[in-house]
Design goal:
The chain is an alpha/beta fold and 265 residues long. It contains nine helices and seven strands; from the N terminus they run αααβαβαββαβαααββ. The chain binds S-adenosylmethionine (SAM). The site of S-adenosylmethionine has 19 residues, from α1 and α4.
Length: 265
């Protein structure tokens, strides 16, 4: 059974030469967490450009799809976990004008960057930012109407603990959305996509990122993320109900949705 911790899903990835970061199959959870801290405090300024380039702007469409799936018309307080440069929080604030957003990240540099973007978009009145850890969310139980994490859970080894924390802070019946990268199941697509992940993206990163080695980690972490049905099982193990997923762009990403039970937690 899937434990929620990093597992070797694709052994062909073990040979990757990652100059600065260990392949995940060789890293302990503590080493994985340390890599993540290092990576996200060193790629901040090129992060948005890289996202838009390597996903051909699909990342924007995927976040938009995610927030459309959460029926925020009746949901007013939204929590964005691992907000990074604030894109999911901004999408919620722009497309659901009645909603208020609290967004947090472990990286102070990401939060500083997000703050500037949010001020520029004149959304500071609608989005509160904080520096915090998804493994110990500093809010009371049953506070938020819904919570989301976009491209973040892959980077946290103890995924079940994150899901439990997100579930704790939302109201009973509230929804959780997890947007995450994946690998296409079809072999005909998977092979070229692996070449794209392992060869093309690091090349692009060498031009646009301050820490190109971080983009070897990207491919490695995607390859080691659980398959969709295993991740759904993990959501259920965390106590969430009505789990479902939506493949995006042939499975290059997935949106997972689930609810906190109405009673009993
Ligand atoms: C790939 S970025 C995603 C950022 C953003 N959500 C987006 O849609 O682009 C992952 C983010 O998760 C943050 N992160 C990693 N571990 C975390 C933790 N334990 N608690 C909170 N944030 C964390 C990183 O600092 C990083 O900003």
């Amino acid at each position: 059974m899937e434990t929620g911790k990093t597992t070797a899903r694709n052994s062909h990835y073990t040979g990757i030469h990652m100059k600065k970061y260990k392949p995940l199959v060789q890293a302990t959870e503590a080493e994985h967490a340390a890599m993540v801290r290092d990576i996200f405090s060193t790629i901040t300024s090129g992060y948005d450009v890289m996202n838009r380039l390597v996903s051909i702007r699909r990342d924007v469409a995927w976040r938009r799809f995610a927030i459309k799936k959460i029926s925020l018309s009746r949901k007013k307080l939204f929590l964005d976990v691992g907000t990074g440069t604030g894109d999911l929080a901004i999408e919620v604030a722009v497309h659901h004008p009645h909603a208020c957003v609290v967004a947090f990240d472990l990286s102070g540099k990401m939060i500083d960057f997000a703050r500037k973007k949010i001020e520029k978009r004149r959304l500071s009145g609608k989005i509160q930012l904080a520096r915090a850890d998804a493994l110990a969310i500093p809010f009371r139980s049953n506070t938020f109407d819904a919570a989301g994490i976009a491209f973040g859970i892959r980077n946290i080894p103890d995924r079940i603990a994150v899901l439990k924390e997100m579930m704790r802070v939302i109201v009973p019946g509230g929804e959780i959305a997890v947007l995450e990268m994946g690998l296409p199941e079809a072999p005909l697509l998977r092979r070229p996509y692996l070449v794209y992940l392992n060869r093309v993206i690091p090349l692009v990163a060498s031009l646009f990122s301050q820490n190109p080695d971080a983009y070897y980690y990207l491919g490695d972490s995607i390859a080691n993320f659980p398959r969709p049905k295993d991740f759904l099982e993990l959501m259920s193990d965390a106590g969430l109900e009505n789990g479902r997923f939506y493949p995006l762009f042939q499975g290059i990403a997935h949106l997972f949705m689930a609810c906190k039970p109405k009673r009993g937690i």
